[in-house]
Amino acid sequence: MSRHLLAICVGMVILASLITSGIQQSWGRVDVMEIKLPTQNGQWLVADLFKPDTATKDNPAPLVVVVPGFQRSKEALSNIAIELSRRGIVAISIDPYAQGGSSSSMSRRAATTEGYGMFALVDYAAETSNLNYIDKERIGATGHSAGGNAAIRGANFFGRESIRTGRPSKLHSVFVSGYVLTLRDDVLADVRSNVGVSYAYYDEGAYRNDLKNGDMRVAPEALRTVNSALLPGDEPIREVELGKYYGNAEDRTLRVIHNERILHPFQPYMREATANQIEYFEKVFDLDPAITSRNQVWYWKEILSLVSLVAAFIAIVPLGQLLLAKVPYFRVLVHPLPEAQPVPRGKGKILFWGLFILGALIACFSYIPMTELSKKLFVAASSREMTWFFPQRMNNGVMLWAVFNGIIGFIIFYLSYRFHGKKHGIHPGLWGAKTNWMELKRTALLALSIFSSFYFLLFALYYFLHVDYRFMFMGVRVFQPVLILLMLMYVPMFFIFFLSNSLRVNGAMRIEGEPEWKSMLRAGIANSLGLFFIVLVQYVTFAVTGTVYWTDGWLYINLLFAVVPIMFILPYFNRYFFRMTGRIYLGPMTMCLIFIMILLSNTVCYTPL
Known about the structure:
This protein is about 50% helix and about 10% strand. It contains 18 helices and ten strands. Strands 1-2-4-3-5-6-7-8 form an eight-stranded mixed beta sheet, with helices on both faces. Strands 9-10 form a two-stranded antiparallel ribbon. Helix 9 (about 300-325) packs antiparallel against helix 14 (about 435-465) and helix 15 (about 480-505) packs across helix 18. The longest helix is centred in the middle third of the chain and has 31 residues, at about 345-375.
């Protein structure tokens, strides 16, 4: 059964990846390849190049550089690159500096001063003869969130260069999505490019805007943008008509404002927002669209990548079963399954649910304080300075939360046993915690084998098909060798939480006579409820008041969209591996390696050059 399930899962991963790759390449009409560009100060930029077969030396095509935002990699905005390349536009989606495969930057404000690497790429594309299939007079840029800031900063940077040289700006047009803070007069005054703006009406960061909301019709940021291209004597616009094109694309004074009704992190994955970008670049580049802007296929890639993601995770379980059954070295790790603990009754039942709620509340109320503490403990990373000491700014806060809640989990578990469970039939033999150094060593090697197999398949698919496992901004991607070193730093800290969770899931939540699905569902809810409650408070407050509850820490709240699902499914794996071995260790060892590598490879990382 394990062999068959593993074969089915791997087959689904491969099949879904093949179709995903076909969609990404427009079924052979677009070449997709990874490129690496050396840039200033010994830095480098990694990107995906989408080249339509219609773009040739004799028929050069426009180029659009796609810049993802903070905490995002080049794959996160592949939907934009896919749709533009389907329409004959060359697209290059970059890994911003300090993210994905790109290097860190010497600048602490890389989006502002370097466009996350986009400035160097535009310079190269405009000057090199290598990209002879690109129309150097029609180079554009688009970005979301901090990537949107990079786009408008690029328009300003190359606009100032244009003023100095008297030549047209190297950036013909830019599209700014999800960011309006730098739509200021001092930035816009030097812009010599067409400008499109798209801002989510329900953007969580709108409290920072001039009017403290996301309505772009009368927003000073939108009005400044539209009026920045007016000729002397023109009557200023006092209310923006959304979707209306102002100015003229030929003299690069075109302006347009969109205001989709969506949340900030989901804006890039909205068909309307994608259509608005498509229509903008078709207009500014004077293209005759062969397909409508609503004819989009990127979401099929997202769905199939999600299938790959789910199937790859399910495959972990039968792989572990096979290795335990077929490899003699690991067979000694299989022990009889301990008895489940007795059904809690009376005071025991009250204690059980009381601790359930207490754990969720502690998880909830400790998250923001731990993220704030991380800024004081890890000053270099929090200041965007290059460092080898815990260089991942956002994950440092999550790590402190995990360490704190893991320790609290151990304490609650012990106190519950010491003052109640010990007197009511609970004994350590029910926990599956008994082990020795030899078994721990073999368990660690088995966990490493599963981790290596999981990522070997991913690397193979990326090498041959240039795809990974993901859904929108949640992804399992190939990693750089430096992250192996960082795992030695982060995994021991996170392991405290993973082991604590396995002990509680299998030593306190496995009830005699209870169906496994019910037990695991409760464990998943218990492990994710506290963090989910943070998201709930954030967005209920936002819905009622128009301002998020946590303002300064809102990016840490957005991080939970990816963390909460991980927290929910973790107890399932801890239970399945417990049932295989009768011990609590294989689950946390395996899933800590896999989940922490996912976290490490999907965040900003300020490692030295």
